[in-house]
Specification:
The complex is a heterodimer of chains A (546) and B (94). Chain A is an alpha+beta fold. Chain A is built from 17 helices and 20 strands. The chains are: A alpha+beta (546), B alpha+beta (94).
Amino acid sequence: MYQYDTIDQALVDARVAEYRDQLERRLSGALDEDHFKPLRLKNGLYLQLHAYMLRVAIPYGTLSGRQLRMLGHIARRYDRGYGHFTTRQNIQYNWIRLEESADLLADLATVEMHAIQTSGNCIRNISSDQYAGAAADEVEDPRPWAELLRQWSSFHPEFSYLPRKFKIAVIASETDRAAMRLHDIGLQLVRQDGAIGFRVHVGGGMGRTPIIGPLIREFLPAQDFLSYCEAILRVYNRYGRRDNIYKARIKILVHDLGAAEFARQVAEEHAHVKTLGLDAPEAEIARIRDFFAPPPFEVGLPDVVDQADPDFALWVDRQTAAHKAPGYRIVNISLKPVGKIPGDASADQMDVIAGLAERFSFDEIRVTHAQNLVLPHVKAADLKAVWEALDAAGLADANLDLATDIIACPGMDYCTLANARSIPVAQRLADVLAPREAELGELKIKVSGCINGCGHHHAGHIGILGVDRKGHENYQLLLGGSGAEDTSLAQILGPGFDEAGIVAAVEKVTAAYLGVRTEGERFLDTYRRLGAAPFKAAVYGETVRG
Amino acid sequence: MVKLLTGNALLRGDVLWWDGKGWSLSIADAVALEPEEGAAILQREAVSERVSDLALIDAENVDGRLRPVKIRERIRGFGPTVRPDLAVAGQEWR
């Protein structure tokens, strides 16, 4: 894992001291709310529906045991005993006291963490593949490049006031576990003729105007990595729409210009930027790479797991994935127990997982955009012990990518922007679909409480969007989305429903799927093969046409 | 339509309701205000800068109790519906 150098630490410590002074001035009355609000937001502190909410950045979703223990400490000491892992691989706390917020940030800084650039129109936390460094199918670990982007984008003076927020993902496998093409910039590390470089997608995103990011550069040589990203941001910063918040994301600029013209402008800008010496020297890239060197995997380990216990066998089958090192597995920890809140973890659970990471996974934990956690490097021989410990902590559900592994944003239970509640819908769906989830197979359900789409509804095999309909919560049903390498955008099926109605509608969709699928066919593939018609008929009968 | 005056406590962020004399943590203590009266109190309270996001919201009388018209405000008065253990005691959000 990357470790702060003295400059990183000094920057974060200075920021805490600066914020402490700002907070003291606010509390004394020397600063009014109009002036203080943008300052607290720059430190990730929002005022939400019930209280202050703090969003903490987890760079590319990677944590050490010490860091996760600190997140548990924050939940226990400064919040109400839990935190919420988000679709941006971050964590949010819902009950922070303003008066304690500087102390909290100081505690975070002791483990090389902060909440900087988790709000505002800047480059946000860089996201990546939760299997990075462990995946059997990756070209190489993408995190050194994500870390390079983190350093480049942190406090970047030119990009502190962009037209809108900006999100970047870096992956290194053909399998996309990070919804890469639904980011403002999506970078896929590839190897070509022995050299590494990047496929560059720009202008993807969900929200009000969902767009799949088009490819603007087939192979960006690694030595141009930062200067080319700088050029993209410069073109966006110059021409992005600042007159209309709904048209301010880079996806609108790319769409309006066309990908080819946008790419031409970036290339032109890059020809200039390249002369400025912005790209990291080889020695710096090597220095960062060293932090992500593979841990000392043992060799000659058995891959075989004793699966005499059927519950354990099911968990191994569903929750573990192939690892690049023989004798090791990637362990997915479900934060989706049926009936609970998707993505929530208690302080005690965080402590348990931190301990397991320290003991069994070379001290690493990952956060996934699907609101689960990962122990990336676990010996096959240790799986039973890990499972038993997870089970004791209520963390051994075996539902990865199944119908109860539902993404849900905080929705109107917590969020001031939401128009409807997301979590209760996810909970009801999990209740009714749990008995059939094995039969349904891979089924990604994603629920958002407003058009901003934090619940990734447009990328759901089944997506649900909560809206306000004449003062009542109403839910639109969308089908056919994917955030994976087969990225697609879910389409609205028809008129919306109330809370009970949307659950019944999803039940009808799943029943229809079971009736028309071919053997082994995923829901998404059935939908792509047959289109919306059979599902529309199942949900609306003959009353809706077209 | 009557109004309720609400906001969030500066120090802790708690949802607050104007009870006629000061601020209460419980929506059950909120008093109905005529729009002009509410606007005057809001303006007066805003000066102190101790309550953030002050707002006058629409309310209605349902079965003898004052209830915000919008669901969002009802949930503000109750707490997260999915964590009744964290809700304001004795309240009903629907």
